[in-house]
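Predicting holo structure, pyridoxal-5'-phosphate bound.
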Amino acid sequence: MSGFVFNEKPIQIAEGDGVWVYDDAGNEYLDMGASYACVPLGHRHPAVDQAVKSQIDKLTYVQGSYPNAVRTSLYETLADTAPDPIGKVWLCNSGTEANEAALKFARAATGESKLVATMQGFHGRTMGSLATTWKSKYKKPYEPLAGDVDFVPYDDPEAMRAAVDEETAGVIVEPVQGEGGINPATREFLVATREATESVGAALIFDEVQTGMGRTGALWNSLRVPVVPDMITAAKGLGNGLPIGATLCRDWIAENYGSHASTFSGGPVISAAADATVSTIIEDSVPGNAAVVGDYLQTELEATLGEEVREIRGDGLMIGIEVGRGAMGHLKQLAMEEGVLALPAGRTVIRLLPPLTLTKTEADHVVDALEAVVL
Ligand SMILES: Cc1ncc(COP(=O)(O)O)c(C=O)c1O
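Done. Tokens:
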């Protein structure tokens, strides 16, 4: 009997290789969810795995107050890749912690307490991040949460302008909503949000936990939009499967971050994994592949399924297929009959977040599988 509290799926994944995973009976599956977008370079990437193995032979962990060359290298890699003037990095262990830190930093740096978040947004499950998450099914059993959060409709510039005022500490936004159904924001919304926060001295946080690491065609989605936030949060793909989160920020936030800390912040092994992941993503032009194969996949899906589904939308290799209430059944059929593992986004959307090394041939395989299931 399993000791786990969740419902587990009926497939036991035992091995992985690139975009493929294998169950304990040797059946292969195309991993179109990348286990929640956590392996942008695919499973068992040699550069990341080798970096981890070498580091384990030297030093597994040292507390963050002792400088360590591997951690320093990761700080520099992240600072170098972030849009200017974002240049400071705080490391943690997950996406929710990265957001938790960003929300605390916003409060500390501004001296204000109000937060603004978006409807359908998802920012994590610890108490602060959860307070800025929209869906009540995630929040209800744990209320009351950290108060003082206003929710505005996603992608509504007017509503954002109206919500941000002198008492606002920070605004948290996913540049493309993931869990909320794969909803890309318009430039107009992001510009309005930047202007509104700037005009009152509030911090703008882009939650790039899902969009980061090249998924939408640039290492950070923030590099593709006309505004620079005050903080960018990252996790998921940052360690290519190993747990790490990061809060990247401008100087005025770093100078006033308060007293936030985490014991495991950037241990050498996890830092080696993340540094190798980010460096390989850049050296191998992985975001470029995400853009090209993502466009190709979206076009092929549109041509094959466009008439049958409500909408196909997304950015790069972050694609949602709005099928309606049958999404969960389709996902099960995809896995059991077609050997394709995908994810839901709510109850109505099939979400594709594959490794960013996906080829067009593998994309064709996915289109065939979806055609068999949806039509
Ligand atoms: C946009 C976004 N933010 C935050 C999180 C929370 O990350 P984690 O599960 O690592 O805490 C997620 C997870 O799905 C996410 O998609």
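DSSP finds 13 helices and 17 strands in the chain.
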